[in-house]
Each structure stands twice: as structure tokens, then as C-alpha cells.
Amino acid sequence: MYKMMIVDDEPNIRSGLMKLIEWEVYGIEIVGEAEDGIKAYMGIKSLRPDIVLLDISMPNMNGIELMELCERLEYKPRFIILSGYNDFEYVRKALQSGAVNYMLKPVDQDELVQTVMSTVRLLDEASSSSRQFQEIMQSLRNDVLVRVLNNRIDSLELREKCHFTKLSFRCNHMRIGLLQARTKDLSASGSASQKWLDFSDIEICEKICNERCECYAAIDNTDTLTLIFKDNSDQFDTSDFERLLEKCRQAVAEHLNTGIFTSLSENIDSLSELPKSYKTCRQDFERQQIMESFFKEDSLAKLEQTSPSDIDYTVFLQALENCDTEQIRSFIHMYLADILATAGIDHIENSKYYLIEFILYTLQKMESSLLIGGDIGHEKRAVFEIIRQSDSITVLEEKLIEYFILLANQLKESTGSHYSSMTQSVLNYVVNNYSDSNLSLKTLAGQMDVNAAYLGRQFAMETNEYFSDYLNRIRISHALRLLSTTTQKTAVIAESVGFSNISYFFTIFKKVTGGRPGDYRKTTSKGENHE
Prior knowledge:
By secondary structure, this protein is an alpha/beta fold. Helices cover 60% and strands 10% of the residues. It has helices spanning 11-20, 37-47, 63-70, 88-96, 109-149, 155-165, 183-189, 199-209, 238-256, 274-294, 297-303, 313-321, 325-343, 348-368, 377-389, 393-415, 421-433, 441-448, 452-463, 467-485, 490-496, 502-513, 517-522; strands at residues 2-7, 28-34, 51-55, 78-83, 101-104, 173-181, 214-219, 225-231, 260-264. A hairpin with a 5-residue loop joins strand 7 (214-219) and strand 8 (225-231). Helix 2 packs parallel to helix 3 (63-70), helix 5 (109-149) packs antiparallel against helix 6 (155-165) and helix 10 packs antiparallel against helix 14 (348-368). The protein is elongated.
């Protein structure tokens, strides 16, 4: 419903205009009236009407002067001028100043309806255009925030995009809060692949949080809503952010009609720490989801009051990396024995809880160090299925030892070369993620928690090849395969192998192969010329 204000120095005319039409029927709400230009200006500033029926001849400040003054306002209404027969010069100036229409007094009812409805259509079109622009800007902001959280945007582009989208990460501290629909609720709906969140959830959460502190919200491709809280005052503590996150959880849960997981990071002092904290929160989500799939809510609450044994997991990680089967066997046996001593021989549920904590830690650490190429999610699903199906500690121990020895052998095969584990990790990651156009040495270094310059030097020393050259070589090799086995257009192929710029693709293609994509395709038997 649009808001309208009536401005005329004659009370009878104001009253008559209000009663002449049932304004609500036409989607109009009368929000105020004024008898002169000065009072009208104050009303426009406070009430923010969409339409103003404006008498052109008034004391103190006439209609033209009021319209000119309103040009300074951020929010400008649409003016419909009411004039007498001798006010044509005023009307001409009013139309030049932006009035959308004018009417002669006394006002005819049908003409008034037609004039107002024409103005409403103008507002509808402007609103649609404004919404479209807002949606574009919101999508762009969302993309920038998601890339920041995943460490996939360089500083130069970030500076430019932040300026354009009015984002700023300058503050004393930041926190990350995450919200995600509960897995069991999604499964119950039969729509686990459905996208639940949309930009309205971003608006809801930002409105809640901005009452206390500045906050940015974004939705990533896993349908997780991330809040970046900015603390400019150093006056917020963990409980303040927990309350804000809880308010957002309640609002989103009500909007989606589903349960919501939440996770809150520790304080972050710089932009560079955001990706790591984001990843930690996501791992917390994963733990919550897995625990919920294993245990009932009341059992889980009791189990979470206990703590897993204080064991140095790095010993086990080293045993996996070295494929030391005896150490793997010994560690699992000792760990299970320690669990039994804590939980009791008959408490298989307690034992499974401790084991899940241990396995999550182990596999998440392996994932963070990129020791395993490809999707480690498969590895997690396999080991948790072992735990789910085992009904005794003895069976569980045998199956876990077998599983981790197999995993260690796979790890040995992937890293069994003359390269260091760090360099081999880079090689594996590029092979599995070459199609990511944002892949760079910097993003890899961020995921591996090492300095980008150091990683680049080590990679070049061991492979006798710069990282960028290796990445381009892998991408071009896949492009050659597609050129010879498919009829896809070159631009499509370039994008599918990680090149977002077609001109750059042609440059690198010629550098690596010495020729052009079209020439190469002509020499192959299966390809056709689709340049």
C-alpha cells in the first residue's frame, strides 16, 4: 500500500479530498495533511509519503518552493499539483520541477482516481526497477562475502568490490555466526537437496543484528547462512553475540518452519582470520549433525557433559601419514581401552561418542592439511557407517583398524613420490580442483595454513615448475581432451577448465601447445569446428 499526503491551505478542500474516494480500495493510505509548505516539508521528512497532492498556491511557502526543497531529500515523493485556472505559469514550472501530473480545481472524482492510479503505476515500475537493482547488489555482496569466507578473492579485487558494494571489514574485532537447517528436518521433508534459505533470511538477520552492531549476512552454496558480526566498540562479549545469534535462529526457524543448527566463532582480529574461523564453524556444524544422527537429544545432552580422553592425536596423524600399521593398530587399541576405562565396558553408546569425536578430529585435520585428494566426505561416511553397525567394542576395534590401515595405504599411494607431503598435496589438489576459476597459490596457502611465498618457492624447487605454469598445464591438458572428444564451443571448454577470461585462455593455450584451439580441433578426428 502506498502512502499519500494532502497539502492545501483550505481545510474544506483537504477534508473533501480525503472523503471523495475510498483510498484503501486503490491501495492508498492517507498518512497526513498540511496547510502550508513549511508544515508539509516537515511532514514529508517524517512520514515519507509516496504521493503528495499539492496545492500550488499556499502561504509561507508555495508548491514550487516546496518541491525544490524536497529535491535535497534522500526520499522524494511524487507530486500531483492542484491548481486554479490562473496558475498555468506555476503549473509549467511545477512540471519542469518533476511533478508527475496536475489537476484543476474543483477536482473531479473520476479524474482524481485516474490521475492517482497513473501515479501508482509509475511507482510500481520504479519499485520493480529498484527491487531489481537491490537484488543485483545483494547478489554481488553475497558473492563477495562468500569468496572472502573461502579465501578465494585477491586483495585488489576485494578492495574494488568492497568500495562498490559498500562493504568494510575495518573494526576492532569480528565474530562469525553460522545457521543451517537440521539434517533430519530436511530429510523428513523429502527435500534434502532443496534450497531453503533466500535473501529474505539475510534481510531478517541483518535487521535483527544491526540493532546492536554492524553485521553482514551471506548464503553459501551449501545453504548455510553466515553472519559476520563487527564489533567497533570493544564492548561486546561472547554472551552478546550468542543472544543475537539465538534471535536470528528463532526468526529463521519460524520463517522456514524447521530446526536450525548454530555455531559461533571466537574473536577475530583481522580479515585474514575469517576463512579459518569460518571453516572451524562449519566443522562444528558437521559434528552437531553427525552426533544428532547417532544419539537421541536427551542422551546427547548427557554425553556432552563428559570429555573425550586427553590423548595426543598428532601421534595418530603421523602414523597415518607414515603408513605405520603397527602404530595405527597400537593407537586404536590403546584409545579404545582408555574409552572403556572411562565409559565402562557396557557403555557402547559412550564409546561411540568418544570415537566420533576422535574420528572427526582426525579426518578434519587430514582435510585441512589436504593430505587426501578428492572428496574426503566419502571417507567420513564410510567410517561412521562402521561405527553405526558395530554392536561390540571388539568388532568395532577390528573394523576401525582395518579401515585406517586401508586409508593409510591410499594416502601412501597418493604421496608415495619424491615430493614432500606439502608439494604432493598441492599436486593432488590441483588435479581435483583445476576447474575452479578462483584457484590460486594464495587460496591454497590459506587452506594449508602456510605462507603463500614459501609454498610457491618450495613447489618450484621440488617440481622445477612454477605453480601457475603447472596449473595452466593441467587445465590445458583437460581442454585438449575436450576439444578432441566433444563438440563444445571453445568458450564453454575454457570456462569448464577454469579460465574465466577467453582471451587469457587463447594466450595460455598457444604458450603451452604452440597453436590455437581451432587448429588443434581440426586435426582431431572427432572434433568439429565450432569456433
